[in-house]
Design brief:
single chain, mainly beta, Tumour Suppressor Smad4, 2 domains, five-stranded antiparallel β-sheet, five-stranded mixed β-sheet, 5% helix
């Protein structure tokens, strides 16, 4: 019998190895209570800090939420193709860039499925995150690479800082990164 993970955002039961909720797409994080593993959505934990004070402690990972009130608003804009100008707001402290795949439980916040007719964007291509007052991007071992401002291919697992106006290429999809108010 497999363990199930309940999403605190929508209540859906997910398979125990899921990273995202099958119903709402919220990233799931692991918690421990009384030595037993629990799972909860990252968004629910950021909205309900008392859950952490009531006996549950988060397993430390590189996906901790941004400091309260510290993250500026940002977005990615598609630069080419039939959906040129489409915007993806960066609403979380970490977002996955890739292609949606319900069968494997992959629900990226920046879903480039429709912008990538040749399937050059990996399902889990890159992640964009905010840490220590800076936005960063990291290639997740994609097949066709991630590039910033047409520079060299990013090394998988090596985060690099982003600046307002940077061009990001994932596979063959061109995006522009904007920080609002800059």
């Amino acid at each position: 019998m497999r363990l199930m993970i309940r999403c605190r955002r929508c209540g859906t039961e997910n398979l125990d190895d899921s990273a995202y909720c099958d119903a709402c797409g919220t990233r799931l994080i692991r918690e421990v209570e009384d030595g037993r593993p629990l799972w909860a959505s990252e968004e629910a934990n950021s909205q309900e800090p008392s859950a952490m004070r009531d006996g549950a402690s988060e397993i430390v990972s590189s996906t901790s939420p941004a400091p309260a009130g510290g993250r500026p608003r940002a977005k990615l804009v598609v630069l080419g193709g039939r959906r040129r100008g489409r915007e993806f707001p960066i609403g979380e402290s970490e977002v996955l860039i890739g292609r949606w795949d319900a069968e494997h439980g992959i629900f990226p916040e920046v879903d480039l499925e429709e912008d990538d007719p040749e399937a050059k964007v990996s399902r889990r291509h890159a992640r964009l995150f905010y840490r220590e007052g800076q936005f960063w991007i990291e290639d997740l071992g994609s097949l066709n690479g991630t590039f910033i401002n047409r520079g060299p291919r990013l090394r998988p697992g090596h985060a690099v800082p982003l600046r307002h106006g940077d061009e990001i290429i994932v596979g063959k999809t061109f995006l522009r990164f904007f920080i609002e108010g800059v």
